[in-house]
């Protein structure tokens, strides 16, 4: 293997491992000289994310690639699929390619859950066919978010791996103890060993029922049979109840105590995400997702963006019979709940709209609340703080002086 150590901000948070491309069977044996699927399996057990790359214009899953993918079995939760260079095909063809990819992957993985497939063109070249530019941007954001959250999710994954290994240890202890107990003390050891290995699926089922163990905790039966061939069953250790109790205590109690610590770590370091490089490029300036939409519409306009619909909002406002030019919280609430938005959302809109914090809404604040309600109903998010361009004109000087 060839490795490189580069000074890059992205690499401060994650390590990238790029495996060589898949070769034909003959070329693989000549060029590699090692068991490539076995190497993939070794890496798959230790990494946090596995990305499979496919080109939309030349989709192909060869027998060799299928074998390599099968080496990832048991790590399906880590696998993401990227359908790259999707700008090289028309929309109709892209739909066909996507369907063919899902069908092919379904045959290889044979799992009930569908793998997450990101569609886009992850390179720096101009888009050949730009019809699906919006889709590519959204898919890129989702993939980058997935990768950026790796450091935050790493501790949780390690904890899950610890639980998985602990359960596997418990199962192995029961299997080894069962095999030792059934071995004769003097004669016929070799024949009995072969019988037990052949009956291993039955032994698995018996242990599962007797100790109420999930089938998913058991190792691969065929691989276990292969490994047991070289071992002397008489040298196996019997089950130690005290150690099994300690293991069960760890799974039921100790692991549960670790979960709040992970949550506390996330609260103390909320910015624990991958940064730098292309990740920063997707969040800069007007290219940030939704920069000119929803609550951020009208950022560059001199006129207050709410003005264009204010006459409509004013009609509603005065029909609600304001007192001294203001609506009480009760009257405003009775109208706001008719939008069928949840109270948590309406409460956030109220907080953003009641600029002067007097517990009431004047006509501009009511128009702002109505605008934010429409923004939310259109499927956009709400800002955590009111952007400067949304502050009502009559409140801007007042807000500026307070700041």
From TrEMBL:
- Location of region: Disordered: 383-403
Q: What spans are recorded as compositionally biased (Basic residues)?
A: 394-403
What does the UniProt keyword field contain? Answer: ATP-binding, Calcium, Metal-binding, Nucleotide-binding, Phosphoprotein
One matching Pfam family is DUF5600
* Matches recorded under PROSITE patterns: EF_HAND_1 (PS00018), EF_HAND_2 (PS50222), EH (PS50031), G_DYNAMIN_2 (PS51718)
EH domain: residues covered: 309-397
Indicate yes or no for the key word Calcium: yes
Q: Which InterPro entries match?
A: DUF5600, Dynamin_N, EF-hand-dom_pair, EF_Hand_1_Ca_BS, EF_hand_dom, EH_dom, G_DYNAMIN_dom, P-loop_NTPase
Q: Can you give the residue ranges of the Dynamin-type G domain?
A: 1-151
Q: Which domain of life is it from?
A: Eukaryota
Q: Which residues form the EF-hand domain?
A: 341-376
According to its UniProt record, where is this protein located?
Endosome membrane
Is the keyword Calcium assigned to this protein? yes
Q: How does it sit in the membrane?
A: Peripheral membrane protein
Record protein name field: EH domain-containing protein 2-like
What is the originating organism of this protein?
A: Gekko japonicus
Q: Which gene encodes it?
A: LOC107111405
